[in-house]
Structure formats: C-alpha cells, structure tokens
Amino acid sequence: MSQAQETDVTEDGVIESVSGPVVTATDLAAKMNDVVYVGDEGLMGEVIEIEGNITTVQVYEETSDVSPGEPVENTGEPLTVDLGPGMLDSIYDGVQRPLDVLEQQMGAFLDRGVDAPGIDLDKEWGFEPTVEEGDVIASGDVVGVVEETVQIDHKVLVPPGSEGGTVAEAREGEFTVDEAVVELENGEEIAMRQEWPVREARPAAEKQTPTTPLVSGQRILDGMFPLAKGGTAAIPGPFGSGKTVTQHQLAKWADADIVVYVGCGERGNEMTEVIEDFPELEDPVTGNPLMSRTCLIANTSNMPVAARESCVYTGITIAEYYRDMGYDVALMADSTSRWAEAMREISSRLEEMPGEEGYPAYLAARLSEFYERAGKFENINGTDGSISVIGAVSPPGGDFSEPVTQNTLRIVKTFWALDADLAERRHFPAINWNDSYSLYQDQLDPWFREEVSEDWPEQRQWAVDTLDEEDELQEIVQLVGKDALPEDQQLTLEVARYLREAYLQQNALHEVDTYCEPEKTYRMLGAIKTFNDAAFEALEAGVPVEEIIDIEAAPRLNRIGTTAEYDEFIDELESDIQAQLEEKY
Amino acid sequence: MQKEYKTITEISGPLVFAEVDEPVGYDEIVEIETPSSETRRGQVLESTADYVAIQVFEGTDGIDRESSVRFLGETLQMPLTEELLGRVLSGSGQPIDGGPDIEPEEERSIVGAAINPTAREYPEEFIQTGVSGIDGMNTLVRGQKLPIFSGSGLPHNDLALQIARQATVPEEAEGDEEGSEFAVIFGAMGITQEEANEFMDDFERTGALERSVVFMNLADDPAVERTITPRLALTTAEYLAFEQDYHVLVILTDMTNYCEALREIGAAREEVPGRRGYPGYMYTDLATLYERAGRIEGRDGSVTQIPILTMPGDDDTHPIPDLTGYITEGQIYVDRDLQSQGLKPPVQVLPSLSRLMDDGIGEGLTRADHGDVSDQLYAAYAEGEDLRDLVNIVGREALSERDNRYLDFADRFEEEFIDQGFDRNRDIEETLEIGWNLLSMFPKSELNRIDEELIEEYYDEEAAAEVTAD
C-alpha cells in the first residue's frame, strides 16, 4: 500500500458519526474512492459516498473507541498498490500491508493504525538493464530485469501512462526500488517501483481468445472440464465440499508462471496452512519452492470487513502487473461470496436500497467487472500474457440459485459444481460430473490432440457418455436393484464405477496421486476403456457378467493413481485384463 | 471526565438513544442509572456528534427519560487473572458464586484483535476425546473450532460434557510433556436453569470446576447480554492460553440464542435484514468469535472451541448453522434418527467433518492406518446407508451378497462403533481396532481406500472368518 511514505494531506475534515466500519465526516474535500486517514490513530479508509457536505468513508480497520470530532485527513489519492520486486514470496492483508512486517511491529495480534509499505523500500535488488543509451522506449516497455526469486525474473516496466522517450542512461547494479535505474533524455526517471490504483484495470493492447489449457494435474479438471490460460472458472459448493482444497490444489499444481492466492474472508488456519506448506512444496516442473512464484493475500473472516472488500482488487492488480511482463498468471479467489457479503454489509450500513437477498443492486456489475479483468492479452509492450481467475463461491445452504452464484455463472465459462453428496461419501474432488461444464473444450481440444493424443476428445466423450448412462441406470437400480438389469447394463455400471473411483477420484493428500500429468490422465482413462472394450467382447462371447467383473486384474485400475511409474504398470495391467478375459472364452 | 447526561430521547427494545454535547467513542461502555438507583451497563452502537445509540445489556425495563447516562470513556474490558479458574460468573462477567471479588492481573478489551495469519501455528496435535465417532472419523486437534450441530431435544450437552471430561492429548497422559495444563471455559447463552444445573453438577461431580471458568447467561437473563458473554469467555480463554500456557477448551452453548440476540438488536435498530431477518453482518460477527480459536507460534497454550448450536427445524441450511459451517473447521452432527434408535452418542458421521483431521493423524501422531481406515469406513457406511433405501422397496432377498454385506456393515457400524455410551472412554487404538474388526467383514479386495501393506498388517482374519461362516 503506497500512501505510507508520502502522506500528502490536502484537506482535513471532522468525524460526524461512527457506526462499525462506516464513518461519516464533514468538511472533507474529497473525491470518490480517495484514501483517507480517520481519527487520531490514523485508521485507513476509503471514500464511498459524498452527499452535500457529508462524506462517507469505509474504514479498513476496527473502529472501537473512535469518536465524533476526531480529524479525517484526505490523501487525495485512490487506493493503490505498490508494484515492484518483492511481491512474490510475500503475504499481504487486503490493502497490501505485509503481514510478516506487521507481526514484527505489533506481535501476534493485528493491532490497528499501523502502516507498512507493500514492498521493502530499503532492500537492494540487482538490476540488469535491457536497454541502452539511445534506445527509444514507450509506456509498458521492459527496461531491465531483476531476479526476484529463484524462479521468476522480474521485468521492470515503463509505467503505463508515461510518455516514454530516448534513454539517456541505464544503470546496472544494486538499487533500492525507489532509486532511478533508467533516465530518459526528457528528464523522466524510471525506478523499479510503480503504483497503480486497484479499482482500475491496467491497460493492454488487445484481448485474445485463449487456446492453451491451464494444466492443473487434476484429472477431473484437465480430463473433463478444462480451464484455459486466460479463462474464468467458478467453484461453488456448500461448506465441507472441498472448495478450499480444490483451490489449494490449483495453486500448487497449475502450470501458471505466477500464482496470486486471495484468501478473502476465510479461515485463519487455512492461510497458515498455505504459509507453512508452500515454502516446502516443489513446483512439479522446475523443482523450485512453490512460494517463489506465489503471492498471498490474506484477509481472514475476522479481519476488517472493508479490507475484505478491497482484497480481490489488490490481488487482480498484482496479477495484471505480472501479466504485463508476459507471464501467465493464475488468480484464486477464495471466496468471492465473502467479498459480495462485504459489499452487502457496507451497502446496508449506507442504507442503500437493497437488491436481491439484501445484496446491493450493483453486485452483478462488480462481479463482471472483476472477472472481465481476466483473459489472454497482448500487452502494450507486445508480449503475451494471461490471467486465469478461479473464484470459489459459497452459496448459503448450498443453494446455487442465490444471487452470487447466479451472477457469477452468467460471466464465467467454466463451472465446477461441488456436490455435498459426493463429499459426504468422501469422493474427492467432489466435483459433480453431470452438472459441471467447460465452454473452453472446443478451443482447447487442438492443444490436447497435439500435445497428448489425437483421440483425447473422443476418449473424453466416451467417458462422459458412460457416466451419463450410469446416471440413468442408477434411477432404475434405485427401484428394482442392480441384479434385475440386463447383463450389458450391469457391465456398464461396473465400468462407470471404475471411472468414478479410479479416474475421477483423486487423493490430494497422496504424494503421487496429488498431481496427475495429462499423459497419465489420458493413459488412465485408456486403461479403463481397454477394460470396457475387452469386457464387452467377452460378454458378447457369452461370458457371464459376474465372471467378467471378478477378474483379478480389474481392481488394479484403482491403484494407477497412486503409482508413480505408471507406464509399465498400465502396460502390464492392460495386457493382463485382455489375457484374463480372453481365457474365459 | 465521567460526564453525566439526563438526555435520553428514545427507548426502544434493547436500545436507548441519548443526546450528547461531547463526542463519545464507538463501542464505549455506558452506565445508565434508573430512578430506582439501579445501574445498567450498555455499549455505544452508533456515535454521532449529536446523539448516541446505546445497546443495554441488562434490559431496558425501568429506564425512563429521567435516567442518567454516564460514558466511561473505555470499551468493555474483561478483568483477567489465573484466579478466575474455578469461578462462576454471570453472562456479563460479574461473580455469581458468592466468592470474593476478582482482583485482575490485567484488563483486556473483549473485542479481541485478529490473530495475524503469519503468527499462527497450524493445528496438528491430536486431541483424544474418547468418542469413536469423533476420534476415528472426525478427529479434533488443538486450536480447532469444531461445532456440534444439533437440534432441540437432542443430547448435545451430554456429548459436550463427555468431550470436556475425557479430552486428553495421548502422549501427555503419560506425563512427559512440558506440563501445559488443561482448562475448560464454559460460555452459556440463554440455556435453561435445568441445563445449567446439568453442566454444573457434572463439573462438580468430576472435579472439573476447579480448572474451569463458567459464564452463565440463562434463558431468563437479558437477551442482549448474550452478545457479550462469548466475548468475555474468549477473552478469558486467550489470556489463559497465550499468557498462562493453558490448553483451553471453550464450550459455547447455545449459539442459536446468541444469533437470536443479534437479530433482536438488528431489528431494534431498523437495519436492512439479510436472510430470515438475521443481520447482513452475521457472518462477520460470528467469525470474530470462531476465529478466536487457534495456536500462536512460540506460545505453549492453545484455544480449542466447541460451539454448540441447535438447528431450527434440524435444517442445516438455516443461516445459523450455514454461516457457522463456512467459518468453522468442520462440524459434528447429532442426529435425531440415531437418537431415536437409542444410539449414545447419536453422532451421524456422514455429514460430519473435521477439516484439520488429515494433518493431525497418521504415523507418529495417531497411527499410520488411521486416515485410510476412516476413509474406508466412510465409504462403506455411505454405501450401506444408500442400500437401506433400496431394501425398503425390494427387500433383502433381491440384493446381492455383496450388498447384503454392506447392509450388515452399516448396522454393526452403528451398534459397535458409534453406540459406545456417554460414560465410555475409548482410546484411539481401541477405536481403530473396532474399525478393523468391522472392515474385515469385507474381502481384502473391497478395501480399495486402504494401502495394501496396511491391510496385511491390520486385517482381522478371525473377524473375516466369522462373517464367511455365517
């Protein structure tokens, strides 16, 4: 949060009233969304309504003991974030205050009125220019590189809005983020740190159609409902259905360059888990610690509600900044419902006319504005970058007809529906294969054909059909029992059971099964299809269905997921299945 | 500086509005003296330059426009000392056990600051409650918040008492730990005198009272007081845990009454209501209670919470259980059907969940097979439950042998695993042994959730032989 160091006070006002996070002030000359400091303690807030002489402010901190008559200072600036090296491997609150710095300053409990810059202003970074004297640069261009973490080279950009010009001097060496590293002939200095208002999207040249999948290593996602790099997805589900675990799995294994994880109004212990786990986990591709590509934003449910409202914006602004460097960024927001509730809470304190279920009428607009900041972009410097957004939704009572879920579904193109019934029987990930969908399938199939196998889409369709058929058959089974079905249908049920138990289920806690590369996903499904084809051949040749089901090799399908050397395992399994079934006739 | 006003303009439900000429802090404590010289305490809910809205904890009856209002210039503080252990306090923190006044070591605001997530320590120490349905299937760990979702007329109190009585951390029972002691904080909100007696009798009978602090807001006490009772309890818990190194178990009952009080205040303030008339900020409000569980790096103590709530109409989509479930780390369901079958405790494991279980169990913590056994029991019981519906239609004879086995399993699981009685304390070894005994009803190839090596080690051949002999 960048106001910390240059509090440029323009005009003072006086508090008129205090009610929870909403404070009104009189005589404050302010613009909408200006950041203000409230009261003697200087609590940070943002202007959200102006009516005559009365300005309404939402305060990002606890307001106990603040009283009317105390001063309000206006910075004249909107809420901005600091952008520069040092954001990765960090954990911030909703207004980009680094939580580890806050802990050093005020101990284990979050006190208020403490401010800290979003990136370390004293640390020196090794800057290597990529431009030289005489080069002409424009807004958005890369002027140099800083090794931010072992994995990520931070590219220093000419701030958007800068006029650009001819480079007079480019300095190599160790600098703090505020020192000029490039000077232009027109006198403009470029430093590693820049600021950007969080509620405004950073500019890009063009938005493109995404054609590459965000490979997640999760079979049901990659194999059935893939998300594109630059796509949007929603994961709605009742409590206990595994939203957070799914988000964590994506943050761990998705093949994005940068991961921004926004814990919005969720549990403190969950954020602690991320903070403790991620530094120890390795990126499956590079072997570097996962934290070296991750930026965490944690505004837990008991932290001030106004900062919860802003944390998704802080997150997406940071994501856009890395996109501008040409990276593929994935942003997880857990949970967007808490964000919507924060809007509702503020709105009701403002006594605005409520829309559906007490949510403000602008809920849909805010949601779509946010998701629209995702996408695959051509940046203004000509590079390509993307932001994929995955938003968890926590519908009250698990009822998807509520406003946040519905308004989200109107925007996102991938829908992973979590199902309480599946979770109850410990089928994880508890993503319902009948309700979920991905509208990116057609766009992404060429990639899967090219990179994995030519018949990827056909094989997937076979699995979908089999599961559909199972769904219909189950209704009959509920009435008459399984044994009353014809033999071929019984066999279909058995195959579908393997699809569910061996393929769709995936154990996030098992060291091997937690990540399943697309090749393995493909081969696993292939093995089940092999069983299917051979079994139906045997059935046609007159082998009773009980005998087919009972072959020794079949249950081994369940063990593929946890097998690291899967290629040999599947080869052997497929030939055993063939052999054991052919023996029967 | 205690300025007195006689400027009350409006009294409405639990709220009093008064004009002021000097600024008053938000959340500040207020004393109102009635004409009959009774003192009522309250808190500033809204403060403006001209008037304040005060919520009165002890009820507004007897307050008139002539009553005097004093602002104490501070937010509500809880006096804290280790000596609180063994004491019984009212819902607003006054001693009601006839004991001496409390001489505090320090006073703390009851609002409670959020724990910085970077300062937290991830909870992963197994607490053995001695209840198989919890230890085996939905393990509780230190620093967790695990509510009991119940309904009216169900024995949730017996379960809570059983947990409070039996909870230990296994290796400490052997006496080789640093010696952090165990304490229970009991926060009662709007429970009946009878229920309160049940708790107090049990505490006295087992000697638990001397390591407990009890906060009592009974059904006939003012409803608004309920909004501060849990905060007093949790402030005390944090003090004992993080200053005095106690492992504190906080039992809050009944959260439903707490939420009703919130709704009452919201209605009196004419706020725009959220679902079912509950205030839109109820999620945030509940979070500021539940999130006060946890562990902090470098401190020995911990705060573990077991809030109890009775779901209106046994409906877990009602806003109270719903919002609670989104904040807490799982939930334990007490079930009416199991209760009517006579199971004690009637814990329904299928919808129950402990989110922190996976990190608190396994090799070195409980036993290597714990996770797999629990998964397999879940899957098998879920399948048995499904088949019960079917059996009602087609009868047992129409089902395959495999299906019949699952049905038998479901029955035996309830009788042998769940129905242990409220006085029975089972250690985790015993719980897992019963689990294996039940799972051995199935051939080894059916146990697809369990690692093959573990099956070899623990599979109960004798139990398996018995089943096939049938």
Give the N-to-C terminal Cα separation of chain B: 84 Å
Strand content of chain B: 15-25%
> What oligomeric state do the depicted chains represent?
heterodimer
CATH architecture call of the largest domain in chain B? 3-Layer(aba) Sandwich
Sheet with the most strands, sense and barrel status of chain A: 10 strands, mixed
Structural class of chain B: alpha/beta
Shape of chain B: elongated
CATH class of the largest domain in chain B: Alpha Beta
Gyration radius from CA atoms of chain A, angstroms: 27 Å
Strand order of the largest sheet of chain B: 9-16-15-17-19-14-20-21
Question: Could you report the average pLDDT of chain A, rounded to the nearest whole number?
Answer: 91
Instruction: Give the total of domains of chain B.
Output: 3
- Beta-strand portion of chain A reads 15-25%
CATH topology grouping of the largest domain in chain B: Rossmann fold
**Largest interface summary:** A-B, 77 and 85 residues
Rg of chain B = 25 Å
Structure notes:
The complex is a heterodimer of chains A (585) and B (470). Chain A has 585 residues and is α+β, with helices and mostly antiparallel strands. Chain A has 15 helices and 26 strands. The longest helix of chain A has 25 residues, at 456-480. With 470 residues, chain B is of the alpha/beta class. Chain B folds into three domains: 3-74, Thrombin, subunit H (Beta Barrel), CATH 2.40.10.170; 78-360, Rossmann fold, CATH 3.40.50; 370-469, Orthogonal Bundle (Bovine Mitochondrial F1-ATPase, ATP Synthase Beta Chain, Chain D, domain3), CATH 1.10.1140. Chain B has 15 helices and 21 strands. Chain B has helices at residues 132-135, 156-166, 170-173, 193-206, 229-242, 255-268, 282-290, 319-327, 336-340, 357-360, 370-394, 401-418, 428-439, 452-458, 461-469; strands at 4-5, 8-12, 15-19, 28-33, 39-48, 51-56, 68-75, 77-80, 88-90, 106-109, 120-121, 126-127, 140-141, 148-150, 182-191, 212-218, 247-253, 295-296, 302-310, 330-334, 347-354. In chain B, β2 and β3 (15-19) form a beta hairpin. Chain B is elongated, with a radius of gyration of 25 Å. The termini of chain B are far apart. The relative contact order of chain B is 0.12. The mean pLDDT of chain B is 90. The interface between A and B is large, with 77 and 85 residues. β1 (12-19) of chain A pairs antiparallel with β5 (39-48) of chain B, so a sheet runs across the interface.
